[in-house]
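---------- Forwarded message ----------

FYI, see the ABC transporter substrate-binding protein record below. Original note from H. follows.
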Amino acid sequence: MTARTLRPRIVAAGAALAAGTLLLTACGSSGSSTASGAPSAVGTVKAASADPSLAALVPADVKSGGKLVVAADASYAPNEFKDDKGNIVGMDVDLANAIAAKLGLKADVQNADFTSIIPGISAKKYQLGMSSFTDTKEREKTVDMVTYFSAGSAVAVKKGNPDKIDAKDLCGKKVAVQTGTTQADEIKDTRNPDCTKAGKPTIPGDGDKFSLQTDVTQALVAGRDQAMMADSPVIDYALKQTNGQLEKVGDTYDSAPYGIVVAKGSDLGKAVQGAVQSLIADGTYKSILDKWGVSAGAVTQSQINAAQS
């Protein structure tokens, strides 16, 4: 399984670059990351127009507010991160704006800690969660997930792989990972039990865990850790944004859909699913993914609760 387990993401390592050098801040910081020399998007996206038939599906209480309150952990470039001016930008942000426009609403994207987003949806603090969440059967017990993207897990190391890391055997290695992600769960629930069964040392601490993906990347660049695990688009983006300081080892594995988080049983899920499908059909979806360089994860159909595991 991939992506942020409560989520994984595309490293806002770009949010920590200046003059081509990765700026190292205090690892483990729980504050928001602001892009310095942030990743630039390529191309523009035409504004989506309202679809009356989809707008009619929006629940009255949402429609009356005129907006969709969308939660995103803005530390996962290029999916969601802060630009040089502190604005929340990225693929998920552009998609949120386009979805809201299709529904005759405005998107109000708010920065939130990743692990707080699903509880915030259930508590009606937010109406949508768009933060590179993997759609899982476990999540579907408490919220609905509208699929819109596909990603897998991957492993990165320092350039040249000085520690001869094998992506399939991380036993005993220091591995950086974002708290609450599927990769963090993978270490705890699968990799370390397998290490124990094989009579090998486990990954220390069930992974070196950080609140922000930016800190995960920085820990690897700084040499604090020997490898990092994250979503495949996050890894791919980190390689570009760290100017050759990192490399991917092994293949992408466990591909699965990202899902937009919606309150369980809400009619808003049907409206959002319809909006995503409409954006796919009219080409807006592709233009957004092309803009952020993540078109490899494009899907042709949006579904509600399509978890594979």
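H. also flagged this: The first strand starts at residue 17 and ends at 18.
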